[in-house]
Amino acid sequence: MIAEKKGLPSKGRYGANLLAQAVLFRYEYRIPYRKISNLFEQLYGCSISGAGVLRLCERMATTARSEYEDIQKQIQAADVLFADETPHLVDGSKSWLWVFTTGNRTFYAFRDSRGSEVLEEVLGDAFSGVIVCDGHRSYPAYHSWLQRCWTHLLRGTDDLSDDDTEAWSIYNRLFEIFEGLKSFLRTDPTPVQRIVVQTNAREELERLARTEVQSGDADDVLTMLENGIGHWLTFVVHPDVEPTNNRAEAILREPIAMRRIIRTLQNQKGMRLHETFFTLLKTWKHQGNNPYTELQRLARNV
Question: Does the pTM of the predicted model rise above 0.70?
Answer without folding.
Answer: yes
